[in-house]
Amino acid sequence: MRFEHVLSPEELTELLDGLDYGLDRRPLPAVLDTACVRTGLHYQLRNGSPPASVTTARDGEVRLFMEYDTLAETGKKLPKFARDLDVTVAELRRILNEEWLPHIQVVKLPPSLRQLDPRALAVRSSDADDYPAAALAALLSPCILLTHNHNDFAALGVHTTSQGVDAVMGVIAINIGEMHVHAVLMVPALPIQLAAAGAKWATERIGPAAWVIFVLAAAGGIYWYRKQPLERCERIKEIAADIGTHFMDQYTAATGEVLQARLQLRACLVPKPEQRSVASAIVRELAVARESLSAQQLAELLDASLRPRVPDLRTYLRGNEALFAQVRRGGFELGRHYRLRDT
To answer: How much is the pTM?
Structure first.
């Protein structure tokens, strides 16, 4: 992709806002399916470290969720996974309990919530085992769905076996691109920051007279430049222009990286529902929150058209202990942490 026009920070923000698909809500929710657990375990056994889906959840860029029945299915399939991967069941259980599950929120969806989105019901008609993960992904959408089963999950917009992993790589690429943008923007700002720090230090040491010295130094620089031969002045201008061009090229490349990564991620997400219910809005707000929320905080985040009364919301949160965990007094999170037991 070529960019003929250099995007200013304001233009880039406006463009990315136009592409807003829930991408600015960090952490981005991701739902893990059993199929990806098997390939993730294979990756870790081969490479000695967890897959990107787990490491991005550990770093806080992705919030990883599993439906309780999906986790139970994973536990039942561990003997098969162990045979396929030529490892003991105990070792797979240890990896999941010690390195995966501490970074995964497990959600028990009641039947009433599973049936809210028709896309989940379409998945159930294809394969009932995929229904729990599909229902959770539909509630959290826009979100990442980590599965290789694109046939059964087609109703949720999954079209390729690598779509979930590609989405995670998109999140990583966005982070790298944003760091590149910040690094490029720091280069021209660094001399100004150093000068400001130097002026502050000098003022603290010798008082207001320091500003007189800085003004005289600046005036001396201007006077020196004007006294240079014409050829030397032109050469100085050329060097300055080259530096400016190089900076703009670096900035254009960095913003292009971010834009392309955002486009990739957007294409790989489960689309948001055409119409979001109150329950779905509550579940998603808790899914993207960086910390637990009280009923009052949660109500303020909900759209006015979906906002229940705070007492009613508090009663709903407290009455669904299998779905919402109260991790502090009046503070709720979506899901809980579980461990696989030795069966």
So the answer is: 0.74
